[in-house]
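Please, structure for the following, as tokens.
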Amino acid sequence: MVCKIERVVTPDGFVVFHVSGRIDGAYVEVLRELTENEKTAKDKLALDLTEVTVVSLEAVRALTVAETTGIELRNCPAYVREWISQVRKCGPRE
């Protein structure tokens, strides 16, 4: 399965990107662009990772940076959360 990203705006104005499938390669850049385009919603922006199955190291680094800049990671799989913790210890390199 490839990556699928769906943008949803909640009634309280929160922008949520529901991400499913694999996050790697070009999809990392797509996620960066989508979150960058939502700068006005920075305090109300989240990535819902419930249906993410596989992530690349590049994706984990991008998610680490996103969370550091205030983007909420919702329903982050445990293995991705652990990998983010490891990347934080070593630095995101971005």
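The two ends are 27 Å apart (CA to CA). The chain has three helices and four strands.
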